[in-house]
Every structure is written in structure tokens, then in C-alpha cells.
Task: inverse folding
């Protein structure tokens, strides 16, 4: 899915929280204005003196917040692609209905007495606060969309009557897309706002020479053979592709239909951890990993001392692993093996698993990269592995940006050398300390099943999925079901 559509779930949640925060702050400010200023001296016949009923306000606030959310959602204020003028119009209508319902309930329900002056302050404060928070969110989103990690570089092939409109939409500043250029037929004039890079036969050369994230093809301008050749070229260069379909193409149900700048596009399902989703996931990683590092620092120091004193060799095991996009990084663990141990047996195991599709040790309790009854493990190391405490230094990998808390397990370079093209989809996101396959079967799974789980995770990622995996991992650790 394109960045805008992928991010819609996070955007909706963010807007809900901002709207509720605006109402909460507006209610508190309205009470401050009503009861902390001497209105009784100004309007003695209309305003009564007395203490602020904060208790009554906070009893009513949960119901007000729930009611605001239901009404705003009913008016469609959380749907994606909402124009600003329409958003303001819907906000006015939704606020009017919400306050009308609030005053009606307060009139018929005598159990709660409210200040009319406080309610008078609440109406504009709530509207201005909601509008202001939404404006700040749009402003922050526009700045985020300018970050290179969020933007997607697009190459377009084909020219129809609607191509000019597509180019104009891709070039809009509020879209997370950078138009690389266009491919066309011989003799075609370039469209204003883009550059003509060549014809379809030059696609491979262009993908080799410059970074392209997606090739977007106008299906009505391509023959079936040309379309298949273009798709094969994209797969060979590991570049995503999409098709702007004809009516006939809409009948195809094996591909995913997307909405890209208002244009229907078909293509294979891609990673959902891109754009603002990637930024949100990274922020959560930094926050949680930072907190865990501080809280677990006494435990980290204790394990460091145990490993240091129990056997000769370095305290940390540092190894080269393959991360996002095939880039290697230094991977940290507490050393659990005798120094200078050979990895020959592990290499042979992984080669057999990848090439033959076999599972790990069926009776093992560790993951596919841990061998059952491994003679290389020290007594302290065996205890650390049982509770997965040897993995704790990877919190520093998360803070460095090499890893995420949740994701596919980080592969060793000699494993990746045995990968087929499809297996490399595991490298489309940051590897994780834990992941979906770790809580779904571990060594009972074959390598192909592990890859399927990783691809499912990539294509269906949500903050909720990460949260479930994280807490399942904690339960496994506490029950000493080390993975």
C-alpha cells in the first residue's frame, strides 16, 4: 500500500487522541476562566460565587470524551483524504451536535449542575483547540513527509489523457512521492513537470543507475508481453511495481488494489512498515528501548560480571549480521559459548534448512539458529539462554538504529548467501529482538514457514501486532520458554 493509505490507521488514532486532548484541555481552561476570575463582581446578578466543582467535572469528562468521539466519527472526521474546508465545516456541525446533546442531557439530568458561563467558554475553546491541534498535526505531517526516509521515488511509464493529471498529483508537495521521470514510446513529447528518461527497453539500465522505489505503469499503453517484461525487470532489481488499471484489470483479484494520489493502482502487497508507519515504529523503539535500558541496568551489570568471571573471553559476543536493505551491522549479545568456538555445525544446519526446507530440532525449545544440546555453550550461557537474557545487549542495537524491538530475526551473512530472491523480502525492514515466528512455533517451523510469517508481518504490521508479540515474548521469557 502507498504511504498515505498505510498511514491512515495511525493518522486516525492520532487525530482521535488530539481531539480528545483538545476537549479535555478546553474543559479545564473553561473552569479556570469561570472560577478563577471575579465574574461575580462584574455580573453580580448573573454569576454566583463559589468554589469550582472540579469533582463533578472529572466525573462527567469520561462520558463527554466518549460522546465527542462517537459524534466526530459519525460525521466522518476520521476518514482519510479530508479537505481542510470540508474538515472545518464538519467540525462546526459535529461540535454543534455534541454541545446540543450535552446541554440537553444536562437539562434533563438533574444529578449534575453545570455553570452556564463555563459552558459558554467551553464552546469556542473546544472548537479552537480541536482546530488548532489538527492544524499542528497537518504541519508536523508535512514536515515528516519531507524526510528522505518517508518519501518514495516513482518512475512512470505510459501516456494517456489522464497521465498529465497523475504527474501533477505526484508532484504535489503534500504527497510523499518524488517523481524520478517518465518512460515513453519513441517520438513522444515529454509532459511538463517531468523528464523523459527513455523507452521501456531502457528500464533495466535506469533502475541500475539511479534509485527507484516503484515503477508505475499505465496498463492501457502496454501489451501483455511488455507488462510481463517490465514486471520481471522490477523483480530482478528488487523494485516495487504498480499498474494503473483498465476496467478489465479491475476484475483481477490476485493483486492488491491501492489508491495512489486518487488514482486506482494494482500491485503486489508490499511492506506496511514504510512512511509514517516507519517513523512511528522507530519512535516507539527509541522510547521503550531507552526505558528498558535504564530499568534493567542493574541486571545488565550483574550479567556482565557473571560472564566475565565464569569463563575466559570477551563479555560481549559481537557478530556481523544482515539488516534492513541487506546492510550489515555489529550485533551484540552476552557471550554464552566458550571462546574460539567453531560455527561449522551451525553453517551446515542452516544450509540444510534453507535448501531443503527442513525444520530445526523438533524437540528443541530454541529458535532455528540455536542448536539443541550445543556443546559450545558454557554453564552460565545455558542459564542465560534459558531465560533469553543473553539477548539484552541488543537494546543498544535498537538505540543505534540497527534493529527494532519487533521484527524478523537478524540473519547471518552465510545464511543470506543461501537465500532465494523471495527469502530476501525478510530484509525489507529492521530485524527485531523478537518477532512473530519466535512466538509461533520456533524450531517446530521449517525455514519456509518462518519466511511466510516474516512476510505476513511485513504486509500486515500494525502497532497492535507489535504490542501482542512483545507481551507474548515477555510471557515466554517469564515461563523460561527461551526462544
Result:
Amino acid at each position: 500500500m502507498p504511504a498515505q493509505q498505510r498511514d491512515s490507521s495511525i493518522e486516525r488514532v492520532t487525530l482521535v487522541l488530539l481531539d480528545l486532548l483538545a476537549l479535555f484541555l478546553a474543559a479545564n481552561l473553561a473552569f479556570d476562566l469561570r472560577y478563577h476570575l471575579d465574574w461575580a463582581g462584574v455580573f453580580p446578578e448573573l454569576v454566583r460565587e463559589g468554589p469550582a466543582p472540579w469533582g463533578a467535572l472529572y466525573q462527567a469528562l469520561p462520558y463527554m470524551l466518549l460522546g465527542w468521539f462517537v459524534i466526530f466519527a459519525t460525521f466522518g472526521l476520521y476518514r482519510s483524504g479530508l479537505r481542510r474546508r470540508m474538515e472545518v465545516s464538519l467540525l462546526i456541525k459535529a461540535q454543534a451536535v455534541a454541545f446540543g446533546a450535552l446541554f440537553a442531557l444536562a437539562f434533563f439530568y438533574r444529578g449534575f449542575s453545570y455553570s452556564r458561563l463555563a459552558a459558554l467558554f467551553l464552546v469556542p475553546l473546544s472548537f479552537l483547540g480541536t482546530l488548532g491541534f489538527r492544524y499542528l498535526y497537518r504541519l508536523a505531517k508535512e514536515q515528516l513527509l519531507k524526510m528522505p526516509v518517508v518519501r518514495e521515488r516513482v518512475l512512470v511509464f505510459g501516456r494517456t489523457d489522464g497521465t498529465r493529471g497523475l504527474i501533477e498529483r505526484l508532484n504535489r508537495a503534500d504527497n510523499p512521492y518524488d517523481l524520478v521521470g517518465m518512460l515513453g514510446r519513441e517520438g513522444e513529447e515529454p509532459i511538463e513537470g517531468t523528464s523523459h528518461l527513455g523507452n521501456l527497453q531502457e528500464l533495466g539500465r535506469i533502475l541500475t543507475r539511479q534509485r527507484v522505489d516503484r515503477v508505475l505503469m499505465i496498463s492501457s499503453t502496454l501489451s501483455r508481453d511488455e507488462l510481463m517484461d517490465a514486471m520481471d525487470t522490477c523483480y530482478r532489481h528488487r523494485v516495487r511495481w504498480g499498474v494503473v488499471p483498465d476496467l478489465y484489470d479491475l476484475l483481477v483479484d490476485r493483486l492488491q488494489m491501492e489508491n495512489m494520489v486518487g488514482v486506482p493502482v494494482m500491485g503486489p502487497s508490499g511492506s506496511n512498515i514504510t512512511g509514517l508507519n516507519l517513523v512511528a515504529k522507530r519512535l516507539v523503539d527509541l522510547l521503550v528501548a531507552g526505558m528498558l535500558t535504564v530499568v534493567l541496568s542493574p541486571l545488565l551489570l550483574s550479567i556482565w560480571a557473571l560472564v566475565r568471571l565464569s569463563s575466559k573471553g570477551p563479555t560481549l559476543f559481537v557478530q556481523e549480521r544482515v539488516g534492513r536493505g541487506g546492510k550489515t551491522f555489529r550485533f551484540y549479545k552476552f557471550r554464552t559459548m566458550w571462546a574460539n568456538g567453531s560455527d561449522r555445525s551451525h553453517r551446515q544446519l542452516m544450509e540444510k534448512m534453507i535448501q531443503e526446507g527442513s525444520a530445526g530440532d523438533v524437540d528443541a525449545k530454541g529458535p532455528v539458529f540455536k542448536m539443541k544440546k550445543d556443546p559450545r555453550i558454557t554453564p552460565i550461557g545455558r542459564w542465560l539462554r534459558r531465560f533469553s537474557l543473553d539477548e539484552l545487549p541488543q537494546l543498544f542495537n535498537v538505540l543505534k538504529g540497527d534493529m527494532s524491538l519487533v521484527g524478523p530475526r537478524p540473519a547471518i551473512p552465510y545464511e543470506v548467501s543461501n537465500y532465494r530472491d523471495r527469502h530476501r523480502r525478510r530484509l525489507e525492514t529492521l530485524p527485531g529482538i523478537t518477532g512473530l515466528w519466535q512466538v509461533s512455533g520456533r524450531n517446530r517451523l521449517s525455514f519456509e514457514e518462518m519466511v511466510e510469517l516474516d512476510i505476513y508481518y511485513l504486509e500486515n504490521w500494525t502497532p497492535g501486532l507489535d504490542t501482542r508479540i512483545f507481551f507474548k515474548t515477555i510471557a515466554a521469557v517469564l515461563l523460561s520458554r527461551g526462544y
User: Anything to note?
Assistant: Confidence is low (pLDDT under 50) at residues 1-6, 250-254, 361-370. The chain has three domains: 3-144, 152-267, 275-478. The radius of gyration is 29 Å. The chain is about 50% helix and 10% strand.
